[in-house]
Amino acid sequence: MCALNGTVRAQSTGGRNKLDFLQLPAQARNVALGATHLTVSGNDPALFMQNPALLDSSKSDHASVNLMPYLADTRFINMAYAKRAGKTAGTWAVGIQYLNYGTMQETDDIGNVIGEFRAADYGISAGYGHTIGAFTLGGTVKFAGASVEAYQIWGMALDWGGVFRHPRQDLTVGFVVKNMGFLKQNYVSANDPVLPLDIRAGLTFKPEYMPVRVSLTVHHLNRFDMVYNDPNLFYTYDSNGNKIPKQVGVAEKLGRHLSLGAEALVHPNFRLLLGYDHLRRQELRLANKGALAGFSFGMELRIKMFEVSYGRAQYVPGFGSSSLSIVMNLKNGFVAEKKK
Q: pLDDT tens-digit profile of 227-239?
């Protein structure tokens, strides 16, 4: 019953929350850049699921779909649409998220197959962003839930955030508070279910005359110690030969809050993407081999009315997940980014 008890995620936090799919990136570009960024602009209206303050008039009449074959043959699908509400008002967006775990066999107490059941996580979001000068503020209301056979969990969540875009430089600074709300469930549990609350701050900047844009995000500011220190794996011995848990330093604890991303602006209509998340690497790497765990990469191509993005995130050595996003401008087509 993985949808209810917490599964391994790209940003694992020890399975302490329910509906962890709300932390997954809803577009391929963020998958490629490191998953948690909240100041990365673009044409994809699904960016409001990362930070509702990314909603502005430039995304009006844009629609997108994102397909991600996820872990163990699961499928994660996101769709979004944005529309400007009048000439002087802000921009609205709606989105749908669906994580399908597929069909599973149902057995009785002694292992006899007696049927089948399905499992899935789902979310419906509505967001609004309003720009005043260099500042944009936004909020998103989400209805989210999960079902496994006859067991269900559902709740309401709120995201709110803000960004500042420098009027003369390619610099964006922002923050977001994600997944404030409540959950209900129809099964007996010793603990009340908890949403994956995440407070983030970050920035995106492009040095003048350099074809590179860099993003830095600090996530889970609401929880300092993100280390899962398994005493059966990480230990030392005292002077008497007894096992003692290995201590994790402050620098390592700080590092697990950091996510880095870089865009190589190869052409106004084409860019290469690279990302790194230290928490993902430290929690999902093998004990004796790290390889590319925690790294991600991708690319983005713009063709008239369409924008196609591909991202791949590496979880453990030799295993990862890919994501494909298609964004369509339903009105005028995209304008190539000007060089600075």
A: 776 666 666 777 7
* Cα angle, residue 278 at apex, residues 272 and 281 outer, rounded to 5°: 90
The model carries a pTM of 0.84
CB 102 within 8 A of CB 119: yes
- Find out whether 123 and 21 touch, Cβ atoms under 8 Å: yes
Closest by Cα among 218, 315, 319, 215 to 271: 215
DSSP 265-314: EEETTEEEEEEEEHHHHHHHSBTTB-TTTTEEEEEEEEETTEEEEEEEEE
88 Cβ contact list (under 8 Å, min separation 6):
none
- pLDDT at position 99 is 93
What DSSP designation does 229 have? -
pLDDT in tens, 252-303: 889 889 999 999 999 989 999 999 998 888 887 776 776 788 899 999 999 8
CA dist list (Å): 102 to 76, 116, 143, 180: 11, 10, 21, 29
DSSP strand E in 195-237: where?
198-205, 212-218, 235-237
Other CB atoms within 10 Å distance of the CB of residue 109: 5
Question: Which region holds residue 327: left if phi is over 0, alpha if psi is between -120 and 50, else beta?
Answer: beta
Nearest to 184 by CA among 19, 309, 11: 19
Strands 270-277 and 113-132: unpaired
Amino acid code (one letter) for 131: T
Pairing mode, if any, of strands 135-148 and 270-277?
Answer: unpaired
- Rounded Cα–Cα distance for residues 98 and 21 (Å): 9
Pair 142, 156: CB distance under 8 Å: yes
Look up residue 24 and give its two tokens. Answer: 């997954």
Give alpha helix (H) positions in the chain: 2-5, 28-33, 250-255, 278-284
Written as six digits, the tokens of 70 are 């996820």
The Cα angle at residue 57 between residues 56 and 62, in degrees rounded to 5: 95
3-state SS class at 152: strand
